[in-house]
Specification:
8-stranded mixed beta sheet; 255 residues; 10 strands
Length: 255
């Protein structure tokens, strides 16, 4: 029965007595009696689950995209954090490698030049031999020079020259500088100098670099660039010792 609807009961037929004794409770004259019920009482009886408030539905619709947004922000934050950690780890590993190589360089014997044996035999018994540079080396003045075709880091270039009874090239004159420049193959070559022990010095002799052909803005103030190289145009520059470049070995003719 809906709100505002009147309940119907049988109406007594015509001709029935207009008045009944109050004591006669069992009398039924058959008439339909209409009784009005309060609307508030009927409204209370309605099932509240039939119509859900629109406000609750809108609230749920709003919460779902907010939840997705928070999840996306959290995921992006973790990705950024991961890449920052990875970058920092890479930088630390590179610094450790540079320090390790620098330590190897400093641990080389101070008598570096004494490790280089004489490469030319001018006399053997009663016979005299014509001095010459080893095969693949180039001769200039009283020196022989080897221009590598491979690439390696500075410390390995230094050791390679020692194994060939030579040293990583030092430059002491404009003439020598010009000769080296004219024999470069359009790539960078390691020189035998570094500032790992303070000022820039030639590893061969331990002498401070005086005659210099530094490029503009060189040597760099970057603390990681401790080893010297020569550009194809002949200018010098500082570089990270762990970089890979070609190198030049130098040995002296004694006759």
């Amino acid at each position: 029965m809906s709100a505002g609807t009147l309940a119907s009961f049988p109406v007594p037929p015509k001709g029935s007595p207009k008045h009944l004794d109050d004591d006669d409770d069992d009398y039924d004259d058959g008439r339909v009696v209409t009784i009005s019920l309060p609307l508030k009482e009927l409204e209370k009886k309605e099932d509240p689950s039939i119509c859900k408030p629109a406000k609750e539905n809108n609230s749920r619709k709003l919460h779902i995209p907010i939840l997705y947004l928070l999840v996306a922000i959290s995921f992006a934050t973790w990705v950024i954090f991961f890449f920052l950690v990875l970058k920092q780890y890479s930088e630390i590993s590179e610094k450790i490698q540079n320090l390790t190589e620098s330590q190897r360089i400093l641990n080389l014997s101070p008598n570096y030049s004494e490790k280089i044996a004489n490469n030319s035999v001018c006399s053997q018994g009663n016979s005299t031999m014509v001095s010459s540079c080893p095969f693949g080396w180039k001769h200039q003045s009283k020196y022989c020079y080897y221009f590598s075709t491979e690439k390696t880091n500075w410390i390995n270039a230094l050791l390679n020259c020692i194994n060939n009874k030579a040293y990583l090239v030092s430059i002491s004159s404009d003439e020598e500088q010009g000769f080296l420049k004219n024999n470069l193959n359009e790539v960078d070559y390691w020189l035998g100098m570094s500032d790992l022990e303070g000022p820039w010095k030639w590893k061969e002799s331990g002498m401070v670099v005086e005659t210099s052909f530094w490029d503009r803005g060189q040597p760099s103030k970057d603390a990681n660039k401790d080893c010297g190289l020569m550009h194809p145009n002949g200018t010098w520059a500082s570089a990270v010792c762990s970089d890979h470049n070609r190198w030049i070995c130098k040995k002296e003719l004694i006759c």
